[in-house]
Amino acid sequence: KNHFENKVDITFESPVSSEIIISVKKSQDKRLKFEIYSLQGKQLYSTGYQKIILNQSITIPVDNLKPGMYFLNVFLFSALGHPSNFSLQFDIVQLVDHPF
Q1: Cα distance between residue 86 and residue 88, in whole Å
Q2: pLDDT tens for residues 76-98?
């Protein structure tokens, strides 16, 4: 779990298997943007939200990514368009169905 200046909570199991959940708790920021990068720096996912609703939950699906290590970049944009951002590292594992 990560708190970014008490504005955004990011929750995920470690390692991640299917999704990352982002909750907007309190924010004067107007826009959000999320990006996922591989360790090699390749952008694999990007989405943005033009209007933030307090207590909104945003789910980022990651079940299409191969097992490995990734970075989630989160950008918060103020009403004037000034960004603030942070980055989190997460791992994805492959779920295995056991026959027993």
Answers
A1: 7
A2: 777 777 777 777 777 876 655 44
Tokens of 54: 């307090």
Classified as helix, coil or strand, 35 is strand
Q: Residue 24 — φ and ψ, nearest 5°?
A: -90, 115
Question: What pLDDT shows up at residue 40?
Answer: 93
Regarding pTM above 0.90, the answer is no
Task: Indicate the SS3 state at residue 39.
Answer: coil
Cα dihedral 18→89→15→58 (10° resolution) = -30
CA 86 to chain centre: 10
Give the dihedral of Cα atoms 22, 27, 30, 36; nearest 10 deg.
Answer: -30
Cα(72)–Cα(86) distance, rounded to whole angstroms?
8
